[in-house]
Amino acid sequence: MTGRPAGVGQLLEVTDLRVTYGGVVAVDDVSLHVAEGEVVGLIGPNGAGKSSFIDGLTGYLPRRGGHVEFEGRSLDGLATYAVARRGLVRTFQSVELFDDLTVEENLLVAAERPRLVTMLRDLVLPSRPEGVDDVAWARMLCELDDVAHRYPQELSHGQRKLVGVARALAQRPRLVLMDEPAAGLDTEESLAFGRRLRSLPGHGVSVLLVDHDMGLVLSVCDRIVVIDFGKVIASGTPEEIRADEAVIAAYLGGVDARH
User: Fold this and answer.
1) How far apart are CA 197 and CA 17, in angstroms?
2) How far apart are CA 34 and CA 171, in angstroms?
3) Domain end residue (candidates: 113, 139, 172)
4) Half-sphere exposure of residue 27: CA atoms within 13 angstroms, side-chain side
5) Which domain holds residue 221?
6) PROSITE patterns, from UniProt (predicted)?
């Protein structure tokens, strides 16, 4: 794993992001960056504001302040679909798949980018579905080829979570924001998922990872940002985060968590 200083090969730059629910501040002027080729972790206790940060960043919640740039271009005011089309996509904690579609078909739905001219052409001259190559690539990265023609109800929980990740990858993003992708996975599934996640930068996909699995986050991330009560309390390499007293107190549960 390789740390990269701020400003070098930057993909995502978030400055003073603020999200509120009425009078409650969920995300309080949080800043972070993700460089090209990095896997960055975002951790914190339950209710710290992690998912609200992802929702505000991607436009699923309105931002009350702050600025977001992706590949040097502002994302401020863009709709969620426009953010995804720029190459910044996300997964969700709850994996909602189309139960009447196979794994392959679920991925094709995500990969397709319908345009009026394409739909009119296909009415007259049906063609190969758009995104087939992207779906094959996503299946390969998530090792889903063996279950491509199964339906979601035939999959294990871990396989369903992988389909959720593959659905994001089928859009060929530059950066994927993963919200609790390892939730519910057993130890073996989590280790296998970590290996797949760590391989993504080699395929041109950087990662911002939100997860409660500390073993996963500490083992795969180049840098980690820690938030508590909506504020950044620490940022650094996994080794620095393990030794940070504020993190130990807020998240890891005491000094013994270092051992």
Assistant:
1) 26
2) 19
3) 172
4) 26
5) 10-87+176-258
6) ABC_TRANSPORTER_1, ABC_TRANSPORTER_2
Give the span between the Cα atoms of 98 and 208, in whole angstroms: 26
Could you tell me which residues come within 8 angstroms of residue 17 by beta carbon, excluding any fewer than 6 positions away? Answer: 27, 29, 30, 31, 53, 56, 57, 63, 65, 66, 68
Strand, coil or helix: what is 137?
A: helix
Region of 9 (left: φ > 0; alpha: ψ -120 to 50; beta: rest) is left
Per-residue pLDDT of 74-112, as tens digits, reads: 999 999 999 999 999 999 888 889 999 999 999 999 887
Distance, CA of 20 to CA of 28 (rounded, Å): 8
Q: How many Cα neighbours within 13 Å face the side chain of 86? A: 21
- Global confidence as pTM: 0.85
Number of H helices, E strands in the chain: 10, 10
The total number of residues shown for the chain amounts to 259
* CA–CA separation, 92 and 114 (whole Å): 22
H or E element: which one contains 66? strand 65-70
Count of structural domains, the chain = 2
Element (H, E) at 133: helix 132-142
Q: What is the pLDDT of residues 130-154, one digit of tens each?
A: 568 899 999 999 989 999 999 999 9
Residue 170 sits at the vertex; the CA angle it makes with 168 and 171, to the nearest 5 degrees, is: 75
